Amino acid sequence: MSTDQFTSRLATRDDLEALRAVMDAAIRQLQASFLSPEQVAASAELMGLDTQLVDDGTYFLLAADNGDIAGCGGWSRRATLFGGNHTKGRDARLLDPASEPARIRAMYTNPAYVRRGIGRRIIELCENAAAEEGFRAYELMATLAGQPLYTVCGYVPVETVDNPTSTGVSVPLVRMRKERT
């Protein structure tokens, strides 16, 4: 699929409201085929916007000609593997590119733009930017809905984790890794 009709750029603080809307829609609609309704609702506790990525200049978006955000995602040189500003267990420690993988983070596709190569293009942007900073590997925490994309992009499962939430509902996630070739 060609993503030529989409423009890529780094997200800014001015994009936050629109990014949240894309994320909320993606969680609600794209996770529904993989999770129970209770797990979809609980996912909001584990996922969402991490403004540190925007502030670090490592969060991309693809915009359609009509201005819609078709998708978004980023990478991080920080230790946090997944989650939004509100997610427990965040770690802002800077990673060592020589010995630790960059984190691919907060990947969301607007449900109106699925199956158009949006996710692949954002992963490519993230991996290239992280490689420019010396990272030789990438790691991410995949949702069950995202795992097929990451597998096609060369990521391999490392472990499956059931993440408990405050509601008592666990959400399955898969930690995945890719070595730079």
Uncertain ranges: none
The oligomeric state is single chain
CATH 4th-level superfamily: Gcn5-related N-acetyltransferase (GNAT)
Number of beta-strand segments: 7
Find the CATH topology: Aminopeptidase
What's the shape?
globular
Radius of gyration: 15 Å
The largest pleated sheet is described as: 7 strands, mixed
How many domains would you count in the coordinates? Answer: 1
Q: Overall mean pLDDT score? A: 95
User: Helix and strand succession?
Assistant: EHHHEEEHEHEE
Quote the distance from N terminus to C terminus. 23 Å
Structural class: alpha+beta
Query: DSSP helix count?
Result: 5
In the CATH hierarchy, the architecture is: 3-Layer(aba) Sandwich
Main sheet: strand order: 1-2-3-4-5-7-6
Range of strand content: 25-35%
Structural description of this entry:
With 181 residues, the chain is of the alpha+beta class. 29% of the residues lie in helices and 28% in strands. A hairpin with a 5-residue loop joins strand 6 and strand 7 (170-179). The longest helix is centred in the first third of the chain and has 15 residues, at 16-30. The radius of gyration is 15 Å and the shape is globular. The two termini are 23 Å apart. The model has no long low-confidence stretch (mean pLDDT 95).
Considering the chains and any ligands shown, give keywords for the structure:
181 residues, 5 helices, alpha+beta, 29% helix, globular
